[in-house]
Design a protein that fits this description.
The complex is a heterodimer of chains A (284) and B (259).
Chain A (H helix, E strand, L loop, with lengths): L1 E2 L3 H9 L6 E4 L9 H15 L3 E5 L2 H14 L2 E6 L1 E4 L3 E7 L4 E7 L4 E5 L15 E3 L11 E8 L12 E5 L9 H11 L2 E4 L1 H5 L20 E5 L5 H7 L4 E6 L6 H4 L2 E4 L2 H16 L1
Chain B lengths: L1 E5 L2 E3 L21 E3 L1 H15 L5 E7 L4 H10 L5 E5 L9 H15 L3 E5 L10 H9 L2 E11 L3 E8 L2 E8 L2 E5 L11 H7 L4 E4 L13 E7 L8 E2 L5 H15 L4
Parallel strand pairs in B: 1-4, 1-6, 4-5, 5-11, 6-10, 7-10
Antiparallel strand pairs in B: 2-3, 7-8, 8-9
Helix pairs in contact in B: 3-4
The chains are: A alpha/beta (284), B alpha/beta (259).
Bound molecules: flavin-adenine dinucleotide (FAD).
């Protein structure tokens, strides 16, 4: 089910991933995200189609739209699913305490809204033959008490941290804001997002949007490279579900090595630029 | 203007979860509990609005056991909230956010508020739903993940963080906002203010007092399990940095197959 300005085209795109039925609710009033209008559309859709689960991404939009829709339906709402299972009843696995442990949850309502953590499931293209059906969501006359007036892109990196397949993060070991460039260059060579420990966010070296950890973003990429990060529990909480972890730190006793798959005990100023070159060679 | 700040007491971010095998419950005995760090931004924003002048009253609302009083006193009342309301029904401890929102909405409806502030999420269950659920239940406007706020007369303009940028949102009052890091720098309570906070009113209410049934959780936790154990760390000889970088790149490419 796709809600948006040019919903039909985007819904057809979703068909490539194996959906059996496709619905689209379009219209000028839906061109820009609006919690009230989108929530109204999805609630109407759920009432009409009675899905067991309404899945959406746990993105900035999904985290706003999920509870909005659930509240309209009075149904269960689960955020950040990393596993989804059905054997007679639905069960969702999700991290709590920023990944220090996981919970398996169930619910008691006929429909549940479930947010999917970006990157947690593999996308596989399948041949799909479903055609898009228009769904009249009844949003035409709906007014909203909150309206998006404008959208501005931030100056930060081009790859979104929580959606990135590779994340390269820098910590206090980079010594000064001018050296964050080393992290960004390695990230660029890998097509990765650039992350940071809270220490360098609080120091004002990089923006908060880069912070990984319990009070920043939780990431679970295929590869996480921690450069000059000690591995405090709050940092580990945000990244320890990464599939492969590399630690570059000159202190062999740093806790980051306890979660790392590969470690280099050395000065990051020597290793990071050399690694950037090596990655360049492999990529070309 | 009346401002409600919905807060939660959570295990400190230093907390280690000791879970050797999957279990139906967490052993919470060693947990130190503090104000949810994101709720601190909500408290601070409310106090800043109060300090900016005019007739403003700030109420902290929470649900929880008697132990929440210490957090309310130190981190809410001592920094400038005027009073606190605790919803005491034991069924709400560990309840899902739909249940918490229903109970808190009953207090907010009873007392009437122009602005409701809360953190973007609580760092224990990480769900981040409360603010939006409250707004819908209260039929108020909402803006989530707010990093900047300008209050007008009967309306507000807020900056909201999204992937790779921000949205500027205009909303009418009354409204619910969920507060994100960057909005402000929460102040610390002073010792004399902590002493004085003991004099401020702290009301304990039950759902029955509020005229509602104790709301049931729709989502239940069946099992807690520890994260996957990680293998040994393979240390790469770093005698020669260039060779170490080459070997690391090779391992990531050929062995781990991640680049
Ligand atoms: C409530 C709360 C919430 C928090 N939330 C978060 C969070 O979300 N995310 C987070 O990251 N932190 C968080 N923290 C902070 C956390 O406790 C640590 O202070 C922080 O993660 C440390 O950052 P760091 O590893 O960059 O710095 P440090 O701990 O100072 O570590 C720097 C590391 O760099 C290494 N190093 C130095 N020079 C070099 C060099 N030339 N080459 C290689 N290595 C070098 C050192 O050996 C050291 O291990 C939180 C703390 C609190 C209290």
């Amino acid at each position: 089910m796709l809600v948006g300005g040019d919903a039909n085209a985007a819904a057809a795109e979703a068909g490539k991933y194996g959906a059996d039925k496709l619905f689209a609710a379009g219209g000028d009033e839906l061109a820009v995200y609006n919690s009230e209008l989108y929530g109204t559309a999805l609630a109407a859709f759920c009432r009409a189609q009675s899905p067991d689960v309404l899945l959406m991404g746990s993105t900035a939009m999904g985290k706003d739209l999920g509870p909005k829709t659930a509240a309209k339906l009075g149904c269960a709402c689960v955020s950040d699913a990393v596993g989804l299972k059905f054997d007679g009843a639905w069960e969702v696995r999700r991290p709590v305490f920023a990944g220090k442990c996981f919970t398996d949850v169930t619910w008691s309502t006929a429909t549940a809204v479930v947010g999917i953590r970006p990157n947690a499931f593999v996308m596989a293209e399948k041949a799909g033959s479903a055609t898009v059906e228009n769904f009249d969501a009844g949003t035409a006359g709906v007014t909203s008490k909150a309206v998006v007036k404008s959208v501005a892109a931030s100056s930060g990196g081009t790859v979104e941290l929580t959606e990135a397949e590779i994340v390269v993060s820098g910590g206090r070991g980079i010594k000064g804001p001018e050296n964050y460039e080393l992290i960004e260059k390695l990230a660029a060579s890998l097509g990765a997002a650039a992350g940071a420990s809270r220490a360098i966010v609080d120091a004002g070296w990089v923006e908060y949007s880069h912070q990984v950890g319990q009070t920043g973003k939780t990431v679970g990429p295929n590869l996480y490279i921690a450069c000059g990060i000690s591995g405090a529990i709050q940092h580990l909480a945000g990244m320890s579900s990464s599939k492969c972890i590399v630690a570059i730190n000159k202190d062999a006793a740093a806790p980051i090595f306890k979660v790392a798959d590969y470690g280099v005990v050395a000065d990051l100023f020597d290793i990071v630029p050399a690694l950037t070159d090596e990655v360049g060679k492999i990529r070309s | 203007m009346k401002i409600a700040v919905c807060v939660k007491q959570v295990p400190d971010s230093e907390t280690r979860i000791n879970l050797a095998a999957p279990a139906a419950q967490l052993d919470e005995s060693g947990f130190t509990r503090v104000l949810n760090p994101y709720d601190a931004y909500a408290v601070e924003e409310a106090i800043k609005i109060k300090e900016a002048g005019g007739e403003v009253e700030v109420t902290a609302i929470t649900a929880g056991p008697a132990a929440v009083k210490e957090t309310l006193k130190k981190d809410c009342l001592a920094v400038g909230c005027d009073k606190a309301v605790i919803i005491t029904d034991p069924e709400l401890i560990g309840a899902d956010e739909m249940a918490l929102a229903t109970a808190m909405a009953a207090v907010i409806k009873r007392d009437g508020y122009d602005l409701v502030l809360t953190g973007i999420k609580a760092i224990d269950n990480d769900s981040g739903q409360l603010g939006v659920l409250l707004a819908e239940q209260l039929d108020m406007a909402h803006v989530s993940t707010v990093t900047k706020l300008d209050l007008g007369d009967g309306n507000l303009t807020a900056e909201r963080e999204i992937e790779g940028g921000k949205e500027i949102v205009e909303a009418s009052l009354p409204a619910v906002l969920t507060c994100q890091k960057g909005l402000n720098e929460p102040r610390l309570p002073s010792l004399p203010n902590i002493m004085k906070a003991g004099m401020k009113p702290m009301e304990e209410v039950s759902c029955a007092d509020l005229g509602i049934e104790v709301p049931a959780s729709l989502v239940t936790v069946k099992l807690y399990s520890p994260p996957h154990a990680r293998g040994e760390c393979k240390l790469i000889d770093a005698e020669d940095p260039a060779a170490a970088a080459r070997e690391l790149a090779r391992l990531l490419n050929e062995e781990a197959k991640v680049i």
